[in-house]
Amino acid sequence: MKIPKAFTNLYGKHAVRADQAPVTEVMKSEGPAVEVEQHMDAVANLDYATWLPFAAKTYNISPHIEDYVIVTTPICPSGLPNRNGIGFPLSELTRYMPPPVGRQAYKAWAGTPMHLEHDNEDHTKAYGVVLDSMLTQIKGYGGGKYWKVMGLAAIDKNKYPDIAQEILDGTIDTYSMGALSDVLTCSVCGATAYGPKKKYQNCRHISSTDEVNFHVVNYNGRALLAYLNAHLLSPIELSIVRDPAWVVANSDMILTPSESFE
Q1: Cα separation of 200 and 210, whole Å?
Q2: 217, 186 in Cβ contact below 8 A?
Q3: Nearest to residue 62, comparing CAs of 152, 154, 138?
Q4: CB-based contacts of 54: which residues, under 8 Å, 6+ apart?
Q5: 91-126 pLDDT, tens per residue?
Q6: Among 36, 147, 153, 185, which residue's CB has the most CB atoms within a 10 Å radius?
Q7: In DSSP terms, which residues pair with 28 in a beta bridge?
Q8: How far is CA 15 from CA 19, 56, 214, 248, 249, in A?
Q9: CA-to-CA distance for 34 and 255, rounded, in angstroms?
Q10: Does the pTM exceed 0.70?
Q11: What pLDDT, in 10s, does the model give residues 203-243?
Q12: Which region holds residue 26: left if phi is over 0, alpha if psi is between -120 and 50, else beta?
């Protein structure tokens, strides 16, 4: 499924359907990209060897790990809405999804294809693959209640050498996740949102799923931020994007030859 380009600009615009909502998030990589063939220790503890040759046939990418440029990047934070008014609760990121996902939602980014600017209708045009995903606590903010999904992205340097070089040079260092959300709810009262062109009728805090909802409301004497929470997530891709990053959770982590993705 292709996420319309109109919804892939800064901060990851979202489109909404009545049944499922494609949502995106734009994040900046944490540390420089490196070539795997020169930094094999960085992937030493991963199980890519058991599935990369099979993914290569599906995505039309190299089956050899040495042919990749890798970069570690946040995929999305928990509990912090983007500027388009979409948040991802920790309970949803850790939810064990039924088939066909069949795993915790945050883990399902592992194995998804890499694309450019969410041009993801044809998986054989993939730029690479997400080797691994993990959940890590955001330090120094929120008293330990916020987490972020991290991804280890691998870009095939032979299939798309120009893009791979830009990533190595640091010219491109922003990435945007793609996922489907079955349900959107109000962050203030929990009421369920409706699909496109339907006004939000269950509460007064959210105007419509067609609009950006990101504003402060008075709720029982408390000032609360009203936005939409995404539920029942099905990750579908991670895109290379040229838009400036929304750095909601960054660090000084740099991937070196002696460090693995742990």
Answers
A1: 10
A2: no
A3: 154
A4: none
A5: 999 999 999 999 999 999 999 999 999 899 999 999
A6: 153
A7: 174
A8: 12, 30, 16, 21, 24
A9: 8
A10: yes
A11: 788 776 667 777 888 888 888 888 889 999 999 999 999 86
A12: beta
- The encoded tokens of residue 225 equal 């931020």
Selection from 115, 132, 133 nearest residue 124 by Cα: 115
Annotate the chain with three-state secondary structure. Answer: CCCCHHHCCCCCCCCCCCCCEEEEEEEECCCCCEEHHHCHHHHCCCCHHHHHHHHHHHHCCCCCHHHEEEEEEEEEECCCCCCCCEECCHHHHCCECCCCCCCEHHHHHCCCEEEECCCCCCHHHCCEEEEEEEEEECCCCHHHCCEEEEEEEEEECCCCHHHHHHHHHCCCCEEEEEEEEEEEEECCCCCECCCCCCECCCCCCCCECCCCCCEEEEECCEEEEECEEEEEEEEEEEEEECCCCCCCCCCCCCCCCCCCCC
